[in-house]
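Dear support,

Our group has been running a series of protein-ligand predictions, and this particular one with adenine is the one our PI (initials K.S.) wants archived with full inputs and outputs. We had some confusion internally about which version of the output was final, so please treat the block below as the authoritative record. The input we submitted was:
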Amino acid sequence: MNFLALTLFPELFGPFWETGIVGRAVENGIIRGWAIDIRDFAGGRHRVVDDRPYGGGCGMVMQPGPLDKALAEAKSRLPGAAIVLLTPRGRPFSQQMAEVLAGTARDLILICGRYEGIDQRVIDRHVELEISIGDYVLTGGELAAMVVMDAVTRLLPGALGNQASAASDSFSQELLEHAQYTRPSNWQGEEVPQVLLSGHHRQIETWRKSHALATTLLKRPDLLRKRNLDRQEIRLLEDWRLEIERILDAQPLRGLDPSPGGG
Ligand code: ADE
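Confirmed final output from the archive:
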């Protein structure tokens, strides 16, 4: 899969494509990445790419001309690529979107905006998909483009050493991941949960499922509501409920205790 970023800061992408799992995916030929400098397509001695917005207002807007030319170059390098604009006005990025993009394995041309925005006419002419990585405003789309490329790359066959780890990811099953531990088994007096040292694979799986459910319930109950719980999961959540009730029963809420003499 090929990625081509259109940006005013191509130097930002070098370390991204050279490092970690993404770097290894490049080395193994699973992905290729380039960055094109939009300024290379600006005319004039000063290579200006922006201008004031029509109708007034603060900030500068990226002009359509240089970006259009940069896009023509990008399309000639990657014919058939999907053209994506990173913008806070875009569709919220999600694991599901990453899975669709990785599943189709279509090349991506990623437009990274700067300034207050991009002239709408060039967006209307070229852009197929607008993506936002969250409800906050970055100074440009470069980090957002890296987020998208990172999330997509690790889903491509062969990118992770162990394919199973992508399938059990947080969000790929609308469940957050259970806690993880490694050696030493006793660290500064803190023990690793015994069951994980037991070698009982079934018990370990059950512990992990149970803790994934509890973590999701506490941190992201919205994910749990969306999930179709199976019988085992309902039972594991029931077990947590009973555990909580036992704790509360053992600690009557003093001050709220309605019995005579209570409080
Ligand atoms: N550019 C600026 N902010 C952004 C965001 N939240 N998502 C995608 N692109 C952006």
